[in-house]
Amino acid sequence: MGDKKIQETTEAQIAVHWQEEEYYYPSTKFIGQANLTDPEVFDRFSLDNFPQCYVEFAEMLTWYKYWDEVLDTSDAPCWKWFKGGKLNASYNCIDRHLKDNKNKTAIHFVPELEEERVDHITYQELYVRVNEFAALLRDFAGLKRGDRVTIHMPMSAELPITMLACARLGVIHSVVFGGFSASACADRIIDSNSRVLISMDAYYRSGNLLNHKVNADEAVELAAKEGQVVDKVLVWQRYPGKYSSETPMVDGRDYFVNEVVKDYYGSRIEPEQMLSEDPLFLMYTSGTTGKPKGCQHSTGGYLSYVTAMSKYIQDIHPEDVYWCMADIGWITGHSFIVYGPLALCASTVIYEGVPTYPDAGRSWRIAQELDVNIFHTAPTAIRALRKIGPDEPAKYEYHFKHMTTVGEPIEPEVWKWYESAVGKGEAIIVDTWWQTETGGFLCSTVPGIKPMKPGSAGPGVPGIHPIILDDNGDEVTQPGIAGNICIQNPWPGCFQTIWGDRDRFVDTYFGRYCKNPESKDWRDWPYLAGDAATKSADGYYRILGRIDDVINVSGHRLGTKEIESASLVVEEVAEAAVVPVAHDIKGKEPDLYVSLKPGYEASDEIAQKISDAICEQIGKIAKPRKVWLVPDMPKTRSGKIMRRVLGAISNKGDVGNVMTLANPEVVETIRTMVQG
Ligand code: PRX
């Protein structure tokens, strides 16, 4: 608690000194075509009209049966939206578009190698491939409604095909980011009790064809050690008909999808009529403790919400070509590459590789070639593109009407480059603040109604009513003073629970401010997002960063405990502490401090071993900037590691008064080691 207070005060001070930026207004051209221009939407979605207002979102979908109740609060805070309603996500993303749009492109798949042709998959072809693969999953893999399946695949057209085939059967998919290690994949297989793993043999990254199948073998082996048996591994091929991995296929366990699916050519699977409250998927994310939590998202609430957000905030029309650069293995990709755009019958772009491969102009060539008019990316990519090719966008003939930024705070300078260089002064920008848990956006400007303000996400989107609370649960009303941002009301996109751990769900997100745990009234359950934020006089929110032990690296969440636990696996390590350090492209990077067990000498080999262990257990994304082997950790008298002091040293800041520590002398030793 002591540590947290100090951190919050600092953030509040930063916020006070943070200058407010000028507004940027949407053009009349943009407003003229926008999906949402009626400012009365905010009245329609006021708390007085809650929860009935959300019917407007649900009606964007096709239901087999309408709901009996808009919001059931009887199992608070596990809300049930559109209870009793029946629908299927795959039907909503595919079948319902066939009548008028079967020949329209659903997915443009862009391989990383520029000499390979772009694959344009129509809604009709998507329908055929999803049905055939669903038949394989049902009849060959024996999967049925309610089963979980783990998917560890790179960016490919086969990834959404796999997800939608699961959704068609009511199988709950759990997609693991392709760049995560076998060990991270195994953890998710175990937690979700998956007995089927879907993988791919290989994919391109920076011009290299990476062996991905090897991860499947290791993951299955690790899961088996923990008692979770995977009996089938289904392997897609990067080049259908050719195996591109040197890892052998295991007889009786591993199957090439492209071979087995031949038995299902022509199969058509009636979509399963799912209850609105049935889970659609799990998405694991980092939290305060070591174990990633499986965020369970619903079918009806989630799909309604992402469809509405895609329509109102992303301003997607069926004729748009929409490119979101995120990976489908993160929530952004689930909501805003797959489910939202496809539910609206748009064309969605999936790019296999690195945005700057083979050069800084690649992204803009893709935009030009495919006529992309809505572009969606994260500050980390914007910073990278700005650094290596600030003048590149001007060389290409593309025109965006709309651009999104997501995942971390964007510096006003970077925002302005995005607006003028990438958007060519023609595109509106939405800075969307949300989380894996929330399914879709929480704060953003509605692009056709509200002006933009660089560095601020904006007000709550229609229906979202944020509030900033202090540690006592009182509202912070003074503009520019930071506190904990919470959402006062439930919304349909919110996850339902943590898979298999309802108590952790309630504690983490509602424990802090719920005064009456018995209450069935949603007003008693403000949702704690875990971010510090300020509200300015115009009602715009500025997100400052996490209040818990989570580091945001390139817009992705890594738990400090997760990284620390990974390093503790190394024999020589006694204690480990991770702190975030500022990085000009990634936003933040983990810096790792380690003390060794008695009898071990610090060496480069040990540091390397620790770094490798982290990459192996989590993935390269968690690789520390540096492993500092220190003689001892700075500690309080009660033995708590002072991460705040280490953070100040890593960021060349002021360590403050350390005389109350148990070992103040070690601070200077570490400072000299790190800062020279
Ligand atoms: O700290 C906030 C930051 O990213 C966290 C959520 O991370 P994740 O669940 O991985 O989802 C990322 C994509 C939605 C938040 O708690 N964050 C996300 N968007 C923004 C942001 N911080 C500032 N501005 C944003 N637009």
UniProtKB/TrEMBL annotation:
Any one GO biological process: acetyl-CoA biosynthetic process from acetate
Pfam families reported for this sequence: ACAS_N, AMP-binding, AMP-binding_C
Signal peptide region: none
PROSITE patterns membership: AMP_BINDING
E.C. designation(s): 6.2.1.1
The Acetyl-coenzyme A synthetase N-terminal domain, residue ranges: 45-93
Name of this protein: Acetate--CoA ligase
Source lineage: Bacteria, Pseudomonadati, Thermodesulfobacteriota, Desulfobacteria, Desulfobacterales
Species: Desulfocicer vacuolatum DSM 3385
GO molecular function: acetate-CoA ligase activity; AMP binding; ATP binding
Domain AMP-dependent synthetase/ligase: 95-491
Family the entry assigns: Belongs to the ATP-dependent AMP-binding enzyme family.
Tree of life domain: Bacteria
Keywords, ordered alphabetically: Acetylation, ATP-binding, Ligase, Nucleotide-binding
Entry annotated with the keyword RNA-binding: no
Domain AMP-binding enzyme C-terminal: 562-640
InterPro entries documented for this protein: Ac_CoA_lig, ACAS_N, AMP-bd_C, AMP-bd_C_sf, AMP-binding_CS, AMP-dep_synth/lig_dom, ANL_N_sf
